[in-house]
Structure formats: structure tokens, C-alpha cells
From TrEMBL:
The lineage of its organism: Bacteria, Pseudomonadati, Pseudomonadota, Alphaproteobacteria, Acetobacterales. It comes from Siccirubricoccus soli. InterPro entries: Glyas_Bleomycin-R_OHBP_Dase, Glyas_Fos-R_dOase_dom, VOC_core. This is VOC family protein. Signal peptide: none annotated. It comes from the Bacteria. Residues 7-125 form the VOC domain.
């Protein structure tokens, strides 16, 4: 038996009590393209037509407050323009956790939260061993 083919696309679904506020945030602040509106679920393109982010109504309050614990989630968006994104977020009224920071792992990143409290990161790989888009 042959293994199945590689995955063609990927979607991360986030659940929010105020899904409308999150839809606006991802469309207007992060400027992601809405590729499918399913009524109560919105799916945005993140990286061309291979990466997607879905916003869904939550079934209840979040029980996990620290996304860096087991069961948590962190949404990372990769861009060479981390500093420009930081300035844009500030101009849009989003308060990042700190200015862009260079990590000992060879990345520069900035962390912030969406209206539902999800932790997001915009990250640049300052190392040559990260695959470039389309590679």
C-alpha cells in the first residue's frame, strides 16, 4: 500500500465569543482575504491558497489562559516586514506585548492578541535554513 499524497492545504480554526469582532480584525487589521463566508464561519487566506485561518463562534468561554501550555495554540504569520507590521498594529490601536525582539533561535518576532484573546506572532526567520515560499 502506498502512502497517501501530501496535504495540499492547511486551515487553523479559532473560536471566538465575538466572532464578528474577530472577522473585522483579520480582514481590516491583518488585511487577510476572506475566501469563504459560511455564515457563522469565515475562512481567510493567509499564504496564497495554501494556508487558511477560520473564525468560528465559540461554544463557551475559554478554559485555557496561557496558550504556551499543553493544549494551547499560537498563530504565527511569517513576514520579512516584522517592524513594519509592528508600526501598522500600533496605528490600528493594537497593543503588542513588546516591540519586535530578536530571539537567540535566529528569528525576529512581535506578539499581540486578537479580539478573542488568541496570541498571534509575526515572525521573520533571520536564518538561511528556513524554506522560502514556493521552495
Amino acid at each position: 500500500m502506498s502512502p497517501p499524497p501530501e496535504f495540499a492545504q492547511q486551515i487553523i480554526f479559532l473560536y471566538a465569543a465575538d466572532a464578528a469582532a474577530c472577522r473585522r480584525f483579520y480582514a481590516e487589521v491583518l488585511r487577510l482575504e476572506l475566501v469563504q463566508d459560511q455564515g457563522d464561519v469565515a475562512i481567510f487566506a493567509v499564504a496564497g491558497q495554501r494556508g487558511f485561518l477560520g473564525i468560528c463562534p465559540a461554544r463557551g468561554a475559554r478554559e485555557l489562559t496561557d496558550p504556551r501550555r499543553e493544549g494551547g495554540a499560537l498563530v504565527t504569520l511569517v513576514s520579512d516586514a516584522v517592524e513594519e507590521w509592528h508600526a501598522w498594529l500600533l496605528a490600528q490601536g493594537v497593543q503588542p506585548e513588546a516591540p519586535p525582539t530578536r530571539s537567540p533561535r535566529g528569528i525576529t518576532h512581535v506578539f499581540f492578541r486578537d479580539p478573542a484573546g488568541y496570541l498571534l506572532e509575526i515572525q521573520r526567520f533571520d536564518r538561511a535554513d528556513w524554506p522560502k515560499p514556493g521552495a
